[in-house]
Amino acid sequence: MKFQRGSIFRPEKDYYKYAGTVLIVATIQFFLAITLAETQFPGYSVSKNSLSYLGGSIPLVEPSAMIFNVSVILFGLLGILAVYLILKSGGCRLFSICLLISSLGAVGVGLFPEYTGSTHLFFALTTFLFGSLATIFSYRLGLNIPMVIISLVLGIGSLLTIILLLVLGSTPASNPLIAYLGVGGNERFIAYPIILYLTALGGYLTSRGKDWVRIRFTNGYF
């Protein structure tokens, strides 16, 4: 696979359009799957329970667990496909690496549900951390100013919530956000800004088309 490294991006095909479509499908199916899984989980609380609890409770609650785990794996695989299409068109490596690692983490979240303990926590943290970084670094794709501002607000907000979680801990007594939002609410303020932004980015990429030939890149993506 050959990646564009010149100062001017001249795609032979509209791979960004395809990448944008893939991101839209990935995020929308995940949101719908979360909603469906919540409806199939008696007593589930968006405040007290994490997203991963839908797919990793003990004992498992079906079909909620299957819906969530299959959807998050699909979300990760589609993210990997989007990265391939973006790189094939000469897109930014820094953004692509972050999105790739986040997508691999999402696959791991589905393969190793919450009941697996530290293994699941590793993949979940990887997904959230690099997802927030991908949101921040998406400006390297040549976005317009409004999209750049949105990416920074959502990405930095998600990243700060992660940092507070790592520094202050995950108990209501130590972390004021968890005391106010609950474990599930706090996690959603990490995950949802990333997922919502990727939906918006997908629409942006899909609509650009041949306008991308006007965007210039330097030799150094980092």
From TrEMBL:
It holds the Pfam family DUF998. InterPro entries: DUF998. Keywords: Membrane, Transmembrane, Transmembrane helix. The chain crosses the membrane at residues 15-37, 66-87, 94-113, 119-141, 148-169, 189-207. This is DUF998 domain-containing protein. It comes from Methanobacterium lacus (strain AL-21). The lineage of its organism: Archaea, Methanobacteriati, Methanobacteriota, Methanomada group, Methanobacteria.
